[in-house]
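It is worth pausing here to work through a concrete case rather than discussing structure prediction in the abstract. The textbook approach is simple: state the sequence, then state the predicted structure, then interpret. We follow exactly that order.
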Amino acid sequence: MQIHRSGSVLLTGAVAVALAVTALPAAAQAAPSATAVISEVYGGGGNSGATLTRDFVELANAGSAPFEVGGLSVQYLPGSPSAGSQWQVSELSGSIAPGGRYLVAQAAGTGGTVALPTADATGTVAMAAGSGTVAMVSGTAPLTCKSAADCAADTRIVDLVGYGSAVVREGSGPVPGASATASVARAASLADTDDNAADLAAGAPTPVNAKGETSGGGQEPEEPGPTEPGDVRIHDIQGTTRVSPLDGTSVTGVPGVVTGVRASGSRGFWIQDTAPDGDPRTGEGLFVYTGSTAPAVKVGDAVLVSGKVAEYYPGTGTQSLTQITAPRFTVLSSGNALPAPVVLDARSVPGRYVPSADGGAIDALPLDPSRYALDLYEALEGSRVEFADTRVTGATTAYDEIWVTVKPRENPTRRGGTLYASYEDQNTGRLKVMSLDPARPVPTANVGDVLKGRTTGVLDYASYGGYNVQATELGTVVDKKLRREVTRKQKKDELAVATYNVENLDARDDQAKFDTLAEGVAVNLSSPDIVSLEEIQDDNGAVNDGTTGSEATLKRFTDAIVAKGGPRYAWRYIAPENNKDGGEPGGNIRNVFLFNPQRVSFTDRAGGDATTPVRAVDTWKGVELSASPGRINPASTAWADSRKPLVGEFAFRGKPVFVIGNHFASKGGDQPLHGRYQEPTRSSETKRIQQAAEVNTFVTALLKADRSAKVVALGDFNDFEFSPTMKALTKGRALKPLIATLPPSERYSYVFDGNSQTLDHILTSPGIRRPDYDVVHINAEFADQASDHDPQVVRVKVGGGFWH
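Step two, the predicted structure:
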């Protein structure tokens, strides 16, 4: 409905009125419940200023009969979920008595002094104090909805509470007032009118469990720890597969020496047997999960541990972590020598990644640690490991993590990373490294730096990144002086076209982000003639109030480019329908063209809007667009809840050129490379293949009208150069991917889990000859980055045969 150009917004009066009265999307509404409801939600546990040590969700039964919760779950979603946000699940068991309560304990923080009453169920979710959504769900499969409207349509939701500024909520709005010291609670009547703001209110947290106990009282005395070793050893618990043969079994007096202690987050400690059985398949290390209680042990303590063996799956599709839960333990002595760590290097880590189960679970397959890297890591789960002088392949994150490779010659990139070259050729030497000592976090490092000296720690497994080393001793970073690249300036007779994913830029962002991104355009990209931007949000970002325009965002960005020495860019975009293009709810993400009017002109043709498809029109003057800017077949199911490609017709030196800005569907929902299902299912790929086919069909139509038409398709395609998506995009040789023209060691624009890979691409039609193409590395390899993507640029010399 809106076509935007710099300096003006083309809105007729009728359209402006229509936009002003557009209704907001419906709020999520489970049917009003006369039985089980969410009665209280508190996400401030353990925060600074809090009294209680952990978060909780309280359920209540307003009915006259017991309410069974076995097979149900409590699930949590951040208040402003991103594309990668997932519902986190806590499973329930038992029932709620008529008029009774049911307490679900969640993650603990480092603050607070008062424990919850004994919980009826326990999860590990770290809920936000100020904003979030909690749902009671029939079943344990994670919800997938991320908007109020979509959640309203999910019949599995029994009850739902959004608090703070939550996007997903029931009724007129979320419950205000939640904080580190305030929960949101339902009225004593437990009335459920499907309006969160009306049904609940903020106040002091008052958790109550099924026994009617409140915080600080009624707790059962703990059983004493074991005094004699039992018959079970750690290698008996770990067994020869990924799942313990003793899963669900209570064990008594398991001996071991404490090798590491985690005192925050998912608290607990690792123990390792000092008398291994000699079988390389059976692990000798194990995690002891103490929940909200800080473990009263230290490294070097010899302990006996009793408890229940459990397999913990930290995320959807992940492998499990074997652990002892609800532990009781006795410290026998302190200051004991630790078992020698296993050295991880190019000789000890196999070259093959993981066995295949034809897409099924590998849980029951016997481990073969001499053949498969993931089998080796699984056999060492919970054990001490060591490596030295490793190259950093993933820069330090905001969570104080880095990725290293213990195989320095494995698929190296030109700048020090590790290339992800194919689905079959996994990089087996990658490991994530974190510090167990909060006082000594992982140092800041960029890709290509070296973690010099010895790093020792316990091998762990988590949902994000898989196997990781919880370091008790860290090497020191040697700075290899990685520098941001600057591409050359285009010549007078060269057209320069670039793509840049600017990571959810909106007018509310800090000026520093605008300035850094602007420097990337003006300096590092040397002010291209056309820049196709991905992830421009509406002017108020994730605020979900119906705003769809991006004029203020683009004004700030182009002003910042001028301040960095760049040209005064103009822009074109088509505003999406509210909440119809995916991305962060309320953000209304879209593609945008910037162009330098001193070098190139934009051919404006009316008729393009959020829902009208653009067509290739064959005229006596040559092919042209039915609308410019326009969108490719926006009503196609391929683009449902996803960004629609933006097409524009430009003129350079009097000649037309067609530019297609793309941002395909994300990889969210794919099974992890390190997970239990092998080979992993790439479920998100189906949509990208459909999207690629739509773009290919459009380009083919352009070329049918004029086989020499000059087309540049570019953007964040969210897929690799060897993927089926790329095959569908280039079908019939309509487009050529320029990434394939680079040496293999330079084919990347993004770094994920220590893998340097290509998600961004520039493709050109056959009429474009001898392009000069460059991926400009300024973000993905650096700890300090304005975006997680590197931009790209292609330059074409008119005299070199760009035009016939």
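Step three, interpretation. Residues 685-705 form the longest helix (21 residues). The radius of gyration is 28 Å.
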